[in-house]
Amino acid sequence: MRLKIIETTVSSALSKSGLPDLDYALNPYIGCSHGCLYCYARDYVPNREVVDNWGYVIYVKKNLLDVLEREVKRFRKGVVGLGTITDGYQPVEALYKLSIRSIEILVKNEFKVSIQTKSSLILRDLDVLKRYRSYIDVGITITSTKNDSPMKSLEVFSSPPSARIEALKRLASEGIKTWIFFGPIIPGYNDSVSEIKEILSIAKETRSVVYFDKLRIKRFMWKDGFLSQLARKALEYDWGNLFRQIRDACNKMGVECRYAFESEESNRNRTLDLYAKSAL
Ligand code: SF4
Description:
By secondary structure, the chain is of the alpha/beta class. The protein has 10 helices and 11 strands. Strand 8, helix 6 (161-173) and strand 9 (177-185) form a beta-alpha-beta unit.
């Protein structure tokens, strides 16, 4: 199937964020061509074409920068999460540059920006991120350290682990505050003690906080034979035991680790719901 890009216009750019530590959310693209099979955003995007062809239909908010320019003059300063729903550094960003131009508008107007991505495309913007590093932090989602990990079958089109790790190290070496999102943890895919320790050692080297999270079970997963198997495994899994092992390893290695608590999940769902209402 070929990627379909559709340009659209929006009446708002920043939405209120329900996520901890973020005041606003900004998502320049609707849909995500990384096409991760487990992607939670599928449960919240109201556009059937995007959801039913997840990874292959992307809406680009063409007038986003004009709208954002107006909003930053009116809105109270705060922290903006870039890519809270879909990845702002997915491949279409190479063409449209809406994420980096949004970041420039935000920091020039004294908003802070917290970016989360699975893509090494972020290194294209290293110079800008460096220049504004006091306003910026970058989280790289690292679900495995090995390019031949079984996670590859779930994250088919995103940057391979080696490229994500390299991006994290480059950003950190330039003095940019970095963090790792280690999630979703999926039983049998990326829950081994050796995998966890390798991710923590990268965190230690880059002085990154690690946010870890289990696979969250979403409605759409029950409609798919393969995903429903993952969901069933996750339901039966001993998460308490795994989280103890992660916390112990974090303590031993001197790495700051935080779990995405259930209350944060409900906040995220509220954010996704808000996004869903304003997205199209
Ligand atoms: S990169 Fe993130 S937003 Fe994109 S498909 Fe994967 S999980 Fe979803």
